[in-house]
Each structure stands twice: as C-alpha cells, then as structure tokens.
What does this fold into?
Amino acid sequence: MSKMTGNLFPFALILLSLAAAPSAFAATEADYKAAYAAAEASAKEAAALRHQWTTTVSTLAAAKKAADSGDFDRALAAAREAEALAKASIYQAASEKEAWKAMEIR
It folds into this structure.
C-alpha cells in the first residue's frame, strides 16, 4: 500500500464519523432535500470518474426510502453518509491515479 493510498482510510473514517454524527434538531424535509442533492451531486462526480462505490448507491437509496416514509432524521443522516462516501471515493480515485506509479515494476 502506498503512502498516498494509506492516508485515504483515516480521511474516509473522519468523513463517515462526521456524517453519522447526530444532529441537535429534528430534520425537516428541506434539510433532507438539500443533503440529498449534495450527496447525489458528489455521487454523480464519482460515477463520472468511474469510481463510484456501491455503498454510496445503496446509502442514497436508504435515504430516499427513509424520506418516503417520513423519517427525515434517518433520511438526513443517510444522505450525509452517502455524500461522505462519494467524497471518499472521489478522493480515492484521485490518489490512485498517481499511486499506481509507486507500485510499477521498474
């Protein structure tokens, strides 16, 4: 594992822990929609890089399902987690774009 790729995991853990942090207020539909839009945009960026994680897709689906049932607290948390996952996959794509060179046989 290269030094650059090794730094990915602490970064991803930090993002995920921030996304999963409970909020001090009851989430509204507007809160969910804003978080979902941000997560969806990040997921589309990761997909454009051909580096979208399957967990991002399933977490987005869970957010939508929770919102459809009216549980906006759970929907907001899932949307934030999906955004963190998408951003971590974007970071991984960028780091792996250069990291392979360190593993190349010379």
The longest helix spans residues 72-103. The CA atoms of residues 19 and 38 lie 13 Å apart. The chain has one domain: 3-103.
